[in-house]
Amino acid sequence: MADDDFPVDGIDYVHFAVGNAKQSAHYYSTAFGMQVTAYRGPETGQRDLAEYVLESGSARFLISGAVRGGTDVGRHVCDHGDGVIDVALRVPDAAHAYELAVARGATGLVAPTIEEDESGKVVTATIATYGETRHTFIQRGDFSGVFLPGFEPREPLVHPAPPCFASIDHVVGNVELGHMDEWVGFYNTIMGFTNMKEFVGDDIATEYSALMSKVVADGTRNVKFPLNEPAIGKKKSQIDEYLEFYGGPGVQHIALATDDIVRAVEFMAAAGVEFLATPDSYYDDLGSWVGDTRVPVETLRAHRILADRDEDGYLLQIFTKPVQDRPTVFFEIIERHGSDGFGRGNFKALFEAIEREQARRGNL
């Protein structure tokens, strides 16, 4: 937007802290079809961490693992398990973004810093958000290197597959009971994000559990952050389970946008990714209210893909089970056809599927 005083170009990367970076990089290469493109570690002069960059379209992950004791990454994994520590935002002016955010009340963690090598320079600065999650502002207009200064190009770990994903569609955060509006206000005030959607009450409840959710987004809708908090229910909600096992607020799931959800699901399932199962009964009358979609209903049924339609179009979506030992971070695969929604019509079926998995873990 021309009058936006806090412009954001998009999500630059999502940064994971993990127990074993090499194995995680191999998993996302093999199971998600992403390609390792860059590396930094002891072999390149970084003594404490091994870090891999993976890409698919414009979606980019940074995977960091400690190679010795006493690191903050190692401490984070010990406290929270594998999880997201940073959702980095690409901006035209990192110093301006940081100074404006701090002036508006954000907690500054790393002041604007210039990193340089033979490929140019990158300006970065970091603020705190919910839990231990951070936003690093990335200004890379004067940099032509592979990722950031200090990283070296790296050949893929496995034979490259055709990309499954084009971009990161949205990143969802879970916060404690009573704090959702606080963090919605944070994004409104600090970054000038506006409220995009709101889901409360019966919109987002089952017989046993409930949650509340609001979505904030930048002016271009390139960056979308749904924020969830638990609501009072008969049993423990998925948000309660996450908060317990993650040890506090954090990123719950990452939605990856694709233009062929069937191919993505087939590829991932063949590589061992487990998806939430939707009952056959969901599909019995799906066509009567969702209408025609690119993928026939019987194909959606075969792959357990959900569909939803709103006034702007429709979307197709599916959710993985948690991708690490703790029942915390998972992924959504989404194919949009006009709709800018989040699958409101699927909430009941989705949450019931999640509750079935919670019950299997003894956490409902």
Task: Describe the fold and architecture.
The protein is α+β, with helices and mostly antiparallel strands. The protein has helices spanning 21-32, 72-80, 94-103, 180-191, 238-246, 261-270, 281-284, 286-290, 297-303, 347-361; strands at residues 10-18, 35-40, 49-56, 59-66, 83-90, 108-117, 120-128, 134-139, 152-153, 167-174, 194-199, 210-217, 224-231, 250-257, 306-310, 313-319, 330-337. Strands 6-7-8-5-1-4-3-2-9 form a 9-stranded mixed β-sheet. An 8-stranded mixed β-sheet has the order 11-12-13-10-14-17-16-15. It is globular. The model has no long low-confidence stretch (mean pLDDT 92).
**Helix-residue proportion:** 25-40%
Model regions low in confidence, pLDDT < 50 over at least 5 residues = none
| Major sheet: arrangement of strands | 6-7-8-5-1-4-3-2-9
- Which sequence of SSEs, written as H and E, runs from N to C? EHEEEHEHEEEEEHEEEHEHHHHEEEH
Largest sheet geometry: 9 strands, mixed
Beta-strand proportion: 25-35%
Radius of gyration: 20 Å
The end-to-end distance, rounded to whole angstroms, is: 44 Å
Could you tell me the number of beta strands? 17
